[in-house]
Amino acid sequence: MQVRANLPLVGRDLRLDLFRGLANWAIFLDHIPHEVMSSITTRNYGFSDAADLFVFISGYTAACVFGRIMIERGWAAAASKLARRAAKLYAAHIIVLALYIAVVGGVSRGLHDPDDLNQFNVAIFMSHPLWEISQALLLRYRPVNLDVLPLYILLLGTFAPALWLMVRKPTLVLVGSLAVYFAARHFGWNLATSPSGLWYFNPFSWQLLFFLGAWTAFGGAHAVQPVLRTRTVFYVAVGFIVFAFVVTMAAHSSGLGNLLPHWILQPFDPNDKTNLAPYRVVHLIAIAVVVIRFLAADSPILQWRLSAPLIKCGQHSLEVFCIGIVLSFCAHAAIETSLDSLWVQIFVGTVGILFLTASAHYLTWHKGQDRAALLAKVLRPLLKLEMHRIHREPRRRFQ
């Protein structure tokens, strides 16, 4: 079977880093209860939110990175790299989970506030630690706010079997993904969690965004670009974004909600996030159509100083995400201690964003130091060999 993938050119697309950074900032703010700054995130103004964007970009990035490895070095090399990446994500999740439980438990006891143990689903772990540790290792137990990473681990860990076919028939894989998506919504497929319940991000549904991102990277966007660039599609996308904005605002405001007929609001309220309602997917696609029209890969916006913190956080997405998870509970504890003070909400939100940005800059510097040390280690023997050759050269001429 012939390879038909049309991957993007080699090189970093700063737009991906920009929006990954934006997603990480939004996820951090959205994870803080009673945080006034979370009112500026996209979930308040449309059907999709930062989680949708995060999973879509993850699929796109996975296709670019591991698809190129497969084309150049074969399926076994790509599968090995995928397994290594999934293992790294798994290790990060377990470490963050242990740290998160320790922080929630310690702060709750220190503040004499046992309600947080129940609110963040940590009380069950305190009651049955050995059992829940085993469930955590199976990705079946997780505290509140630790749902995105297990989904990503599962999607990336099972991506290898589909990768072989996707570099050859990307549209066929997308059709299969759509079939699984609609079957999951129709038959109620999902995975169980411990001690009871289902995955908050239903993997049978959310895999669609991952494979949609991968299909886009494998040439899907290039194939449909002539259609997406038309004025008709652009105006339809803008119209749907406006419609989503009005409906979402109406759902959050009883006064505005009374102005719209019930039959308009009813299909979108509540917003089905667990099973990834179709209108969330359409909303994300509409945003992508509008953004791509105004933000080219070489846009000067990407060089602005204001864009640099977001891009830097996007370049260290995993580390920033993990730090943000733990930091979000610390921010919640500070807000709760201050009795939901508005100034404390603004302060902890701002400091949290600054800390995430500082962490990303530190990681960039640290990796730069590691690369410099590695380069020096590699070049040192070559330099010695060259110096030895230069030292012997005059002797040869004399002889």
Describe the structure.
By secondary structure, the protein is mainly α. It has one domain. It contains 17 helices and no strands. It has helices spanning 14-30, 50-73, 75-110, 115-119, 123-127, 129-137, 148-157, 159-166, 170-187, 203-228, 231-252, 254-257, 262-265, 278-294, 308-315, 317-337, 342-398. Helix 1 (14-30) packs parallel to helix 16 (317-337), helix 2 (50-73) runs antiparallel to helix 3 and helix 9 crosses helix 10 (203-228). The protein is globular. It starts with 13 loop residues before the first helix and ends with a helix. The mean pLDDT is 90.
Provide tags for this entry.
globular, 73% helix, 399 residues, mainly alpha, 17 helices
Describe the secondary structure blueprint for this structure:
Layout: H1 14-30, H2 50-73, H3 75-110, H4 115-119, H5 123-127, H6 129-137, H7 148-157, H8 159-166, H9 170-187, H10 203-228, H11 231-252, H12 254-257, H13 262-265, H14 278-294, H15 308-315, H16 317-337, H17 342-398
Question: What's this, in brief?
Answer:
The chain has 399 residues and is mainly α.
Tally of DSSP helical segments: 17
Q: Quick one: overall form?
A: globular
Number of domains: 1
Oligomer: single chain
C-alpha Rg (nearest Å): 24 Å
How many strand segments?
0
Tell me what portion of residues adopts beta-strand conformation. under 5%
Unreliable stretches (pLDDT < 50, length at least 5) are none
For the largest beta-sheet, the strand count, sense and barrel status come to: none
What distance separates the N and C termini? 63 Å
The H/E string reads HHHHHHHHHHHHHHHHH
Overall structural class, as computed from helix and strand content, comes to mainly alpha
